Amino acid sequence: MNDTIAAISTTAGKGAIAIIRISGKDAIKIVNKIFKEKNLEKVPTHTIHYGHIEYNKKIEDEVLVSIMRAPKTFTTEDVVEINCHGNILVTKKILEILLTIGCRLAEPGEFTKRAFLNGRIDLIEAEGIMNLINSKSEKERELALNELGGKVSNLIKELRQKILEILANIEVKIDYPEYEDIEDITHEQLSKNIKEIENEIKKILKESQTGKLIEQGIKTAIVGRPNVGKSSLLNKLLDEEKAIVTEIEGTTRDTVEGTITINGIILDLIDTAGIRKTDDIVENIGVNKSLEIIEKSDLVLLILNNNEELTEYDQKLIEKIKNKQHIIVINKIDLPSKINLKLENEKNIVKISALNQTGIENLKQKIIEMYNLEQLEGKDLTYLTNARSLALLNQSLELINDIKTSIKLNQPIDMIEIDIKKIWELLGEITGETYQEELINQLFSQFCLGK
C-alpha cells in the first residue's frame, strides 16, 4: 500500500484515446518527471492539463493529464490519469516508462482493492463495480448500480445495527445489572427479536432469487426429436439464420447457441441435437450431450411435431422434463394435426408454426408469466446476488436455528449471545467490515487489470 501503482484502464486495441491510471503517494511526482509543459506538483487538484510525455529527450505522445489529490479520489490516494492516443503501442510505451521511473504494475483489481482497504467503498460496492463492467442487460446494469450506490449495503448494515442493539442490551444487563433504563432481555423477548432477524434474512434470500435471475439469465435448452423444428425456432427467436435447417434428420449434431432479452432478462438459448437412437458415432455424442444439457438448464423448451403422433422418444422426453421448469411447444400447426397429446394438469403448452412465425410471441409471453418478469418493470432492484454473500446469509440462518433451540432449552442468555455475535460477524463479512485477507485477495483478483 506504500508503493505507487500504474496500469492501463481502457480496453487494449485501437481507439481515439486510452487511459493510464496511476495511484499512490508518489503518483504526481512520478508523472511530473515525464510531463513537459508545467510542474504538476503545483497545480490544483481535480484539474486537467494539456502537454506531452517526454522521456530521454524524446516526445512519446500528446496527452491530457488529470490530477486528483487525496483524499477525494477513488482510491483516496493521489491519482493521476494520462489520456493518450489509443494505439496500444503508444499506451504500452508510456506504461513502460512509468514502470521504469518508479511505478509498480498494478495487480488485477488493485485500484478497487485500495479503495476498499482505505474505506472508500465496502465489499458489496466493490462487487457492484465488477458487475457493472460485466453487465449484459439494462436490468443487470440497474442491479449493479444499486450495489455500487450503497443501497444493497444498507440492507445488511441495518440488519447488523438491529443485532448490535440486541448485543448491547445483553452486555449492559450482564455488566451493569443495576442499570434500570435498559429493558430486561428475557428468553421470550430474545425469541421475538431473533424471529424478526430471521424473517428479514429470509426476505433478502427470497428476493435474491430475482437478483440471480437478472445477473445470470435463464439457461434455456431447446430439445426434441430430429426434424421437429428446434433449429427453426432458435432462428426465429434470434431473428437470424444461425442454425442450419434441412429436412435431413440429424443435421444438428452439436449445440448451437444464441442470446435474446425478454423484459430485461437474458435467455441463453441452446439448440441441441435431435434425440433419437442412432448408430452414427458423432450424432450419438450429440444426443448424449443434449441429455446432459437438459439436466443443467433452468428452462427446457420441448418441441413436439403437431403433424405426427407421439413416439416413444417423445414420451421419454416428456417424462424426463416433468420435474424441471419447462414449456411444451407444439410446432407445425400450419399442417394437419395428428398429435395424440394427453397431458393432465399440463398448463405450459404453446402452439406455434416456426415456419410462419405464428405463436412466437405467445411463447415469449409464457416465459414472462412463468418467471413473473412483468413484475420487474419499475421495481427497485435492491438485491444481493453474490454467491459469497448468499452463503453467509444461509450460515446466519443455521446459527439462528441453533439460537432458537438454545432458547427452548432455557440456556443462559450470555451463552446464547455467542451465536448472536457470530451472526453479526458473518453479516460484517458481506460488506467487508470483518474480513479475511485471503478472501479479499481472491475477490479482487477477479477484476480486470487497471480497475
How would you describe the overall organization of this protein?
With 451 residues, the protein is α/β, with parallel strands linked by helices. It folds into three domains: 5-121, Gyrase A, domain 2, CATH 3.30.1360.120; 138-213 and 386-432, tRNA modification GTPase MnmE domain 2 (Four Helix Bundle (Hemerythrin (Met), subunit A)), CATH 1.20.120.430; 217-376, P-loop containing nucleotide triphosphate hydrolases (Rossmann fold, 3-Layer(aba) Sandwich). The chain has helices at residues 27-32, 88-100, 110-117, 123-134, 138-148, 151-175, 187-216, 230-238, 281-296, 312-321, 360-370, 387-408, 413-431, 437-444, and strands at residues 5-8, 15-23, 47-55, 58-68, 79-86, 104-105, 218-224, 256-262, 265-271, 299-305, 326-331, 349-351. A six-stranded mixed sheet has the order 3-4-5-2-1-6.
